[in-house]
Backbone:
């Protein structure tokens, strides 16, 4: 299947690689020349403009893998050049409330917007990406070959009307905030509790083999601690990208209490004001491990 992809960075580049290695044709665009050069090595047919991208597609299907703050501008540019019947896929972490508005805007141009909340980070190239999908059913059905390639078995599902995919992904990320916070607090207690010199990586390795708390998140925490037991060179500033905040706003509207996620967001916000400790350093290290996110503030 042929697909256009805008955004050839950490995730978009790896997604294009997974697609091309499994027989799909990817035409890719990124303003960054280095990203285009790397994608070309993966077999991606890269172009230097959006107009060129559209002209190379037999049926215009364009996947956006860009930060949420750039989606409106990207849609504005694409809607001016794509033909009626085109499908645009927003695979980033967009606010589902904005996705619903964007879907209506696209519909007014006879274009279909499909929202795909995508999880997997830089690990997804090998293990596949979990994908939470919303949008018109016919458009989603036409994209099955793409989803089947990008996701592991049973790793994707359609949830209905526009915005629903990003909504499920928002809740996923809010859970991620709370789960990561629990892991890092536990490791901090091991380090600063009554027993000196506990090997944190060894404890994490044991937990990863048969224990009830084994998980991908624990695995990346254990890896980070094995590589850097004292987390040296990590300042403890933890970036946050918005999803937990959006989830808490929706929870407040619907009178749903989320104390764990509320506190986990507060920890990240406080770290940005200098309230750092071993747990926030480990949070930053974990985010870097699974998502390639900046490990320090200045990055």
Residues:
């Amino acid at each position: 299947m042929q697909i256009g992809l805008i955004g050839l960075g950490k995730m978009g580049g790896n997604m294009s690689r997974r697609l091309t290695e499994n027989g799909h044709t990817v035409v890719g665009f990124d303003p960054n020349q280095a990203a285009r050069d790397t994608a070309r090595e993966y077999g991606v047919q890269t172009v230097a403009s959006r107009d060129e991208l559209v002209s190379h597609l037999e049926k215009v299907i364009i996947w956006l893998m860009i930060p949420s703050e750039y989606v409106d501008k990207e849609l504005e540019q694409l809607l001016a050049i794509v033909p009626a019947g085109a499908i645009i896929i927003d695979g980033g972490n967009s606010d589902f409330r904005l996705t619903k508005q964007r879907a209506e805007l696209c519909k007014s141009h006879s274009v279909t917007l499909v929202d795909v909340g995508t999880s997997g980070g830089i690990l997804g190239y090998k293990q596949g990406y979990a994908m939470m999908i919303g949008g018109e059913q016919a458009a989603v059905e036409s994209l099955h070959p793409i989803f089947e390639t990008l996701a592991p078995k049973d790793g994707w599902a359609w949830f209905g009307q526009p915005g629903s995919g990003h909504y499920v992904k928002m809740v996923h990320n809010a859970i991620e905030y709370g789960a990561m916070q629990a892991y890092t607090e536990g490791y901090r207690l091991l380090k600063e509790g009554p027993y000196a010199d506990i090997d944190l990586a060894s404890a994490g390795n044991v937990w990863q083999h048969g224990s009830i708390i084994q998980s991908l998140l624990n695995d990346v925490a254990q890896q980070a601690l094995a590589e850097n037991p004292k987390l040296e060179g990590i300042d403890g500033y933890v970036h946050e990208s918005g999803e937990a905040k959006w989830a808490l706003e929706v929870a407040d509207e619907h009178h749903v209490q989320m104390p764990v996620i509320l506190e986990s967001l507060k920890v990240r916000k406080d770290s940005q004001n200098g309230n750092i400790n071993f747990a926030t350093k480990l949070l930053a290290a974990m985010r870097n491990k699974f998502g390639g996110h900046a490990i320090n503030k200045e990055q």
About this structure: The chain has a mean pLDDT of 96. The radius of gyration is 20 Å. The chain is about 50% helix and 10% strand. The CA atoms of residues 11 and 162 lie 23 Å apart.
